[in-house]
Amino acid sequence: MSEATTLKILYIFPNRDQYEGECCRTSDGVLLRKGSGRHTSVSGIIYTGEWDNDKMNGRGTLTHPSGAFYSGPFRDNMYHGKGTYRFPDGTEYTGTFNNNRFEGEGEFTDSQGLMWRGMFHNKAALGLKLKVNV
Length: 134
Description:
mainly beta, about 0% helix
């Protein structure tokens, strides 16, 4: 694919989602999101960050109407790398993600504000230890 210069656009999709940001035109004339941009869905989900090949790729923030959000790296529209996910109830996971799942070393702060550290694997977290500040 031979890429031309970066364009800045405001595009409203047929379903009324909206993208404002950078894109490029492929050699066959198709516009692809590439660079920095903000995508707002009609359901209220907002992604602000980097795009490549028309997908969330690179650093960004995804916020949900519920108050949940993720901040960190994306790969092919999925959480991937070291990031933070905050749940609507205020609990929070900071650590490694692999294809939208908790994977590897991380810290989870529960609803009482206690921080647990350990190895996470999807929804399992065997051997968590309470992190104590002295």
